[in-house]
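Colleagues,

For the teaching module next term, I've prepared a clean inverse folding example: a structure given as tokens, and then the sequence designed for it. I'd like students to try predicting residues themselves before seeing the answer, so please don't circulate the second half yet.
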């Protein structure tokens, strides 16, 4: 009897992208970015870390990347955006993460 091989299962992504969000208090762009990125974190597309700008780590990231506005968003430690994340840029990030 001939056996039909089972289709190969797609491998689950093992590399989750680290996204760091440096925020300040009372920043509606920070709140919006956190909400959007947190939903992607819950979906398993990324690992979100939020850092307060006033913290030592936040101050170090600000000194390194010199954002013009908040939030400062880093992907895998590299500058991604400062200020409100444009929907198109976020969609391209999501597409890139989904393709991994």
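(Answer key — instructors only)
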């Amino acid at each position: 009897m001939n056996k039909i091989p089972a289709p190969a299962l797609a491998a689950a992504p093992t590399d989750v992208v680290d996204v760091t969000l440096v925020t300040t208090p009372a920043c509606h762009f920070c709140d919006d970015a956190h909400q959007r990125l947190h939903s992607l974190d819950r979906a398993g597309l990324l690992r979100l870390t939020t850092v307060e700008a006033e913290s030592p780590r936040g101050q170090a990231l600000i000194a390194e990347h010199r954002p013009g506005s908040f939030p400062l968003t880093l992907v895998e430690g590299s500058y991604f955006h400062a200020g409100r994340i444009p929907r198109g840029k976020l969609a391209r990030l999501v597409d890139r993460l989904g393709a991994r």
